[in-house]
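WARN no homologs supplied; continuing
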Amino acid sequence: MRRSLTLALALALAPASAHATTLDRVVAIAGDHVILLSEVQARAKPYVLLAAQQEKDSLALARLTTKALRETCERMIDETLVEDEANRQHVVVDDDEVDRAIASVATQNGLTLTELYREAHNQGYDAPTYRAEIRHQVLESKLAFRIAKVSDASKIEAARKQLLADLRARVYVEDRLAP
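OK structure emitted
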């Protein structure tokens, strides 16, 4: 009784102009994980900046920004599910594997490592974020390879898609940004 009386008194004395301010919001749930709007916005920043450079029409820019946020949120859901599955199967990616993958990307694009990191920076990625992105791609490929059990790129890509579909089917996933 005393608690409700204190609450009633506090509400009565609160200024009429008081209002709540939303600091952040949940935009997705993947299993036991919550993904916040601020996290999606931070990850989508390179794509939003690129869209802003290419598109001057405000309506088209808003559409591109919304699309970038949605796609980034979907990727973050997949990443979360892949990380959980990798932990369950005790699959890890060490720094040497990430270094080799980055060197391979540089070679495929005819760039030095410095040029590759500079290009990544120009696209809005700092070195740790770029390495984390590559690390996740390697981890996802390792899990897909376990399913495909062959090194044929098309079969691994099909296995990757199947892996993601299976992971999404196994746990509760809610994407509040999806149309």
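The CA atoms of residues 51 and 64 lie 7 Å apart.
OK
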